[in-house]
Design a protein that fits this description.
mainly alpha, 109 residues, binds zinc ion, 2 domains
Length: 109
């Protein structure tokens, strides 16, 4: 079995950092907008950037949570498609991988 202890603590730290980032972005987004139209327009495009950052952070949070869940129920490293081991090499390159290379290729084609 793969040693998941270190990975788990790394992921937990990453999760905390991401959650803090999302909270910051949220409070930036909630900051009251000025009434001046020109300023408002530039604030709105800034909001789109913030929302993009927020949604990518949220995606990563979702992925990390699902990996942590798989570590907890001892299924981390098993392919979600065929149930075989994903393999240490693939996991090192793609810690969030839930499919082995064969199933991933099949899903992509
Ligand atoms: Zn597979």
């Amino acid at each position: 079995m793969t040693d998941t202890k270190e990975l788990k603590s790394q992921l937990e730290q990453r999760l905390i950092a991401l959650e803090a980032r999302v909270a910051n972005l949220e409070s930036d987004l909630r900051t009251a907008h000025s009434q001046d139209w020109e300023e408002r327009t530039s604030e709105i495009s800034g909001d789109e950037v913030l929302e993009g950052l927020e949604s990518s952070a949220m995606d990563e949070i979702t992925q990390i949570r699902s990996v942590l869940k798989r570590i907890d129920d001892d299924s981390y490293g098993d392919c979600g498609g065929c149930g075989k081991e994903i393999g240490a090499k693939r996991l090192a390159a793609l810690p969030f991988a839930v499919l082995c290379i064969h199933c991933a290729n099949r899903a992509a084609s």
